Amino acid sequence: MKILGFETSCDDTSVAVVQVTAGRGTIIAQHTYTQVEEHAKWGGVVPDIASRAHLEHLPRLYAQTLASANVTLAEIDGIAATVGPGLVGTLLMGSMFGKALAMGAGKPFIGVNHLEGHALSPLLMPDSPVTFPYLLLLVSGGHCVIVRVDGLGQYKTLGSTRDDAAGECLDKSARLLGLRPSGAALEKAAQGGDPFAYPLPNPKVDGLDFSFSGLKTAIALQVQKAGALDDTARANMAASIQRAVATTIAYKVEKAVKETNLTTVVVAGGVAANAEVRTLLTTVCTRQGATLVVPPFALCTDNAAMIALAGGLRLQHQNVYDWGLPVRPRWPLDEMTAIV
Ligand code: KG4
Ligand code: ZN
Question: Which residues line ligand 1 (CB under 6 A)?
Fold first, then answer.
């Protein structure tokens, strides 16, 4: 089954064609436009700018993707688009584009939960080493959750952030240091820095939940106290911030592994690109006898392939959220139905 997928939940415009077979997916073609430049000067994603950018880039990416996949719309078996969670305006752009195409071509439309896409993304890895059940850590600019994935459509959120996401904390911290508001810029600045130079607190939150707002305030105070930063001080500060965020993430993942006895941990989301985060996660997983699976970066960040896969798996089982479903800015994974 060939599925055309659209992802527009936030600031990435992505279109993909995925072949879905035997519970797995193979990417035939994918084109993604990342809007970071458009939002960088505002210090965060501006919903209205994001919506307009999706509208501008969707037609081009759609044409490019079909051409790269060497398929026509007539050869597509279903059209999937993210309908939630995310920004209401941006969700409307991708889902209306998908619905219009599906209606015109007489194809099934599948509204996809973005988080389900992330949860199933390891099934797109070539020779995927992942089998159910597993723990999913999703750490991005918008999400910070630990989910137990027992099967297709069977999810239990074990912990989530009570305020900011880890990526948002890194983005805002980078900005305070006079860098581009991105975790990647912070990671670059942290190279060679001393991660213990500036003391930062470990957030104390019950269970498997996260909180980054207190840490964000502590970071702001440290930066204020430090005054003008030379290159060494900036590297030390960036390394300390990165270490603090990575430590809290790894601590909760270790706790989740211990509590669930699951032996596979899959990490997704843009923050998974961070070497410090991966190193500390590898340490805790090894200590607990679990395997850490880090899909390629293109599968970790927002992408249409994971949306096409989730849509295709639901279509195969005739268990779809179709035309009637409006966009859902909030849509917890625990509300999904099992795909059987
Ligand atoms: O998954 P993603 O692309 O989706 C959104 O949430 O939009 O994640 C973006 C997040 C941003 O907060 C970004 O700063 C962070 O991932 N990120 C990183 C790195 N690369 C991207 N954080 C830390 N280190 C990196 N190398
Ligand atoms: Zn995402």
Answer: 10-11, 140-142, 167, 170-171, 182-184, 187, 269-271, 273-274, 301-302
